[in-house]
Every structure is written in C-alpha cells, then in structure tokens.
Amino acid sequence: VGETNTFEVAQNYPNPFNPATAISYYVPTTGKVMLQVFDMLGKEVATLVNHRKDPGTYAVSFDASQIASVIYVYRLQSGGFVETKKMVVMK
C-alpha cells in the first residue's frame, strides 16, 4: 500500500491463512473508515475498524480462529470509496 492521493486496500497477507492475517490500507484524507469482514452470503463476521482516521497507512490483524474455513470478503469504506477483496481461511 503506497502513499497516493487515492484510497487503497491491499490484499490480505498471508492468503490463504490460518488463523490470522493482516490487512493494510491507505486513506488520503481524514474521515470515518470502516473495515468489515463478511461471509459469502453477505452476513457480517467482524468489524475490524469503525472510527475516524487521519491520512496515512494502517494495518489491522484479523483472527479467524473462531470461524469456518471458507472464502470471506473484506470491505473498506470511507466517504464515497468502497473496495472489496476476497480472502481464504484454510484450517
């Protein structure tokens, strides 16, 4: 995730993972940021970030030890920006 004038969300690493992974993202402006994890049916599994962030690069860890081994999606939202990526929990 580089320093640019646009929002960025990186692919989680490692992927596939067991039991934890890291997700990095960059926000170019101050504002509310939400980073959520959903199952493939759209049910929210976790909210990793839900607060105001200043411009910069951030990383958050996701522990999947209590959820099933399947494909999940994570979504970064801030202002009008929304991006979704897939990740695989493999136990």
Give an overview of the whole structure.
- There is one protein chain.
- This protein is mostly beta strands and 91 residues long.
- The protein is 0% helix and 58% strand.
- It has strands spanning 8-9, 20-27, 31-39, 44-53, 56-63, 71-78, 81-88.
- 20% of the residues are buried.
- The mean pLDDT is 94.
**Which regions are unreliable across 5 or more consecutive residues at pLDDT < 50?**
none
Largest sheet, strands/sense/barrel = 4 strands, antiparallel
Please give the radius of gyration in angstroms.
13 Å
Q: Oligomerization state of this entry?
A: single chain
Helix content: under 10%
- Overall spatial form: globular
Which structural class matches the secondary elements?
A: mainly beta
Give the termini separation. 27 Å
Q: Strand sequence of the main sheet, in spatial order?
A: 4-3-6-7
Sketch the topology as an H/E string, one letter per element.
EEEEEEE
Residue share in β-strands: over 45%
In total, the number of strands is 7
How many alpha or pi helices? 0
Average pLDDT confidence is: 94
Provide a compact summary of the structure.
The protein has 91 residues and is mostly beta strands. Helix content is 0%, strand content 58%.
Give the secondary structure arrangement, pairings included:
Elements: E1 8-9, E2 20-27, E3 31-39, E4 44-53, E5 56-63, E6 71-78, E7 81-88
Antiparallel strand pairs: 1-2, 2-5, 3-4, 3-6, 6-7
Features:
mainly beta; 91 residues; four-stranded antiparallel sheet; three-stranded antiparallel sheet
